[in-house]
TrEMBL record:
CDD domains: HP_PGM_like. This is Putative phosphoglycerate mutase. InterPro entries: His_Pase_superF_clade-1, His_PPase_superfam, PG/BPGM_mutase_AS, PGM_Phosphatase. PANTHER family: BROAD-SPECIFICITY PHOSPHATASE YOR283W-RELATED, HISTIDINE PHOSPHATASE FAMILY PROTEIN-RELATED. One of its GO terms (molecular function) is phosphatase activity. Keywords: Glycolysis, Isomerase. SUPFAM superfamilies: Phosphoglycerate mutase-like. It comes from Deinococcus humi.
Length: 204
């Protein structure tokens, strides 16, 4: 038996989010702000209200996802499992640049064959590959996986799972999620489809 329902959440707010600077793995030990902890508690209630069957909670190797997942797991009565492969995208040479450059200088990231890649870092395809590999492990088990990850990583894997165009999806912020935003995917005969889409919940 495999999972037919998947919940994907972004971590709560950190001081790095407030600063709006791309930092990649340099931010792995960043902690949630007070607002971020409040967002995590709200997320926990939102997920509990969805009544997930046999829930399993996973967080990336970064502190902020583990702190976000903690109240979710506590409310559901399950542990948090650390899952490698779902960490944030490596911005490479863009480390230290403001989030706003993702809008004003986005064309610097566009490559051939509908690709998006950070020079010296990872591409959307790189992140989707490792994220999907991690998902395949948890989706092979029964129950409802709840994955707490990161903005860029979630955009990358949603593009893959929903078979969406890469450049247009990044440029339009189609899959961008606010801090503690929640997305529910349902497996159908033709692939994954949206269940609940909450990209605008709990804005920074």
């Amino acid at each position: 038996m495999t999972s037919s329902r998947l919940l994907l959440a972004r971590h709560g707010q950190t001081s790095g989010n407030v600063m709006g600077i791309l930092r990649g793995a340099d931010s792995r030990h960043d902690e949630l702000t007070d607002e971020g902890h409040a967002q995590a508690r709200t997320l926990a209630r939102q997920i509990a209200a969805l009544n997930p069957e046999a829930p399993r909670v996973y967080a990336s190797t970064y502190t902020r996802t583990q702190q976000t997942a903690a109240p979710v797991a506590e409310l559901l009565g399950v542990p948090v499992t650390i899952l490698d492969g779902i960490q944030e995208i490596d911005p490479g040479d863009w480390r230290g640049r403001p989030y706003s450059d993702l809008k004003t200088s986005f064309d610097e990231l566009v490559g051939p064959d509908d690709s998006v890649s950070f020079p010296g870092g990872e591409s959307q395809r790189d992140v989707a590959d490792r994220f999907e590999m991690a998902l395949n492990t948890v989706l092979s088990q029964p129950g409802t996986p709840i994955i707490v990850s990161h903005g860029g990583a979630l955009i990358s894997v949603l593009i893959r799972l929903l078979r969406a165009p890469v450049v247009d999806s990044w440029r339009s912020d189609r899959f961008a999620q606010a801090n503690a935003g929640l997305t529910e995917l349902i497996r159908t005969p033709s692939g994954w489809a949206f269940g609940t889409w909450a990209k605008d919940s709990e804005q920074i």
